[in-house]
Automatic annotation (TrEMBL):
Enzyme Commission number, as recorded: 1.1.1.23
Function description: Catalyzes the sequential NAD-dependent oxidations of L-histidinol to L-histidinaldehyde and then to L-histidine.
Top EC class, one word: oxidoreductase
Gene Ontology cellular component annotations, sorted alphabetically: cytosol
This protein's encoding gene: hisD
The protein's name in its UniProt record: Histidinol dehydrogenase
Family from the record: Belongs to the histidinol dehydrogenase family.
Amino acid sequence: MIKIYEDNDSIGLFLQLMQRRSEEDSKDALEAVEGIIGAVRKEGDASIKAFTEKFDGVTLEQLKVNEVEIEDAFSKVSSNIKNALEKAITNIEYFHKKQIRQSWVSTEENGVIMGQKISALEKVGVYVPGGSAAYPSSVLMNVIPAKLAGVKKIVMVTPPKKDGSIDSNILVAAKLAGVSEIYKVGGAQAIAALAYGTDTIPKVDKIVGPGNIYVALAKRVCYGKVDIDMIAGPSEITIVCDEKANPRFLAADLMSQAEHDKLASSVLITTSKTLAEEVNKQINIQIQNLNRKEIIEASLKNYGGILVVKSLEEAIDMANTIAPEHLELMIENPIAYLGKVKNAGSIFLGQYSPEPLGDYMAGPNHVLPTNGTARFFSPLSVDDFIKKSSYIYYTEDALRELSEDIMILAKAEGLDAHGNSIKVRVENE
């Protein structure tokens, strides 16, 4: 069951607790990550193999996945899964193609030319969780926007299973999406290899993809040497609903996030105490048939909550304060309230747009800001894999028109050489 909160004080305390759940960045974990990164920088492949044996229990001769392994994966994966992956790829490509930007140029009457040149990053690294868990959907969501942006080389890293292999679904998804190279390495050592390069694993320009606390901390430490997408925290969902919402749907959606992790957060904000109680009843019924029951129970107990408020406007305001990764508006006429949503990673409208639809098949990206960072971060997109360069061309006459103002500003800032750069062009020798 999820605890129900009705008064402002208890709701406030719950929201504070939820926001603190990600404060698991222990000093010990950070020290361990820094040590791993240092070792990879110094010892390269040898340290990666040693860490893989230590943390994953696997001794590897070769880090790179070969074509035989990929072909073997295709023979093992069912046609149903392949067809589902291909359908997902079609939908993800359709959505992300609309994000593609073009370079532009502006030509003025006085001869001035200015514009913006858009270029794709050359090499991108994609981290995909592996080992005991496998998420082929994460492969698609991270790789497809990069391919559409024009990235030529996409390097994927993922931890091996105990037998030294990579999950077949992961390999098939990677091949279908267009990954260039795949390496059997996970954890902080994988991030360090992508950031600094080794004899085997190439250095990349940007690293994207989710991972555990060690992966997240490694991305944070390496940021600046390499670009990253975001520091991902535990998964979360907030559902705003009225009294007409289906309690079976609500219970199912809350548990769909709770099963990710004991630190995941599932919050329901409703105007109906009766509905809140019905949702709890449905959770108790549905949870009995779910494989990850223990994780769900722990997550709902620790960071789950049903908040009963007086109006939908108050519920939306509260959701904006939470700034959740996933926001469901399970209300009558949700489109009417869409404009009131200010902070959310991805928004799901109506009874038949559940969050897992976005995870797998709808098309929008499921790599989303967490921990309230939807206040200033956006979902992963084609924009994350491009860079922009501005350019200008001025004629002598056009420069003269602005020269006096430029020299005035340069003098005001005490930068005489800046002013001189203009002066030598507009004054006679």
